[in-house]
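Thread: quick sanity check before group meeting

JM: Hey all, I'm pulling together slides for Thursday and realized we never actually wrote out the predicted structure for the chain we discussed last week. Dropping the sequence here so it's in one place. If anyone has concerns about the input, flag it before I start.
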Amino acid sequence: MSTLQELADLVEGTVVGDSSLPINGVSTIQEGKPNTITFIAHDKYQKYASSTTASAIIVADKALLNGKDGILLDSPQEAIAKVLNHFAPAYSRFEGIHQTAQIDSSAKLGNNVSIGPNTVIDQNVIIGDHTTIGANNVINSGVKIGANSTLDHNIHLFHNSVIGKRCIIHSGAVIGVDGFGFTTNNDFHIKMPHNGKVIIGN
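JM (edit): ok, ran it. Output follows.
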């Protein structure tokens, strides 16, 4: 639960109305709920401003509030993103190096790196500071992962892939696998090796 003033401070906006109004979440403007906040970022939603049952609205134009409580600022879209993150549930992650992780002795791990259960890290892998790697991941030789990145579970990073700083890789991703390249001669197929690598920037 947050007050309207606390949310305004979070998004660097100005309260219009009751600054002590309690807000416990976010709702759409069409299906607003009491004690939630909504927003108007596009003209097509302005028609719902007077009928929404949300307790407060984030707007760029004070006139849209039509007597309702709200927050006034230049970018409602950016503001609602911050509010959504504020109310999003926090999920705990494994911290430290799990005893079932298999890490090659040549791998270089930065400070405060966490590696989850059953993850395999091959030769000459470099992992930056404060990076979290979830469970059941396979990180092949020569991979570089920048600082403050997060890899969820069941990810495969193939040889020599480069992941930048502050990246988030979601579960099930396969990065750096070779392309489907073949040359054919008299119905005989020869696989074409790929000499490049995947580079994901910061």
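AS: nice. Residues 102-200 form a domain with the UDP N-Acetylglucosamine Acyltransferase; domain 1 fold (CATH 2.160.10.10). The chain has a mean pLDDT of 93.
JM: adding both to the slides.
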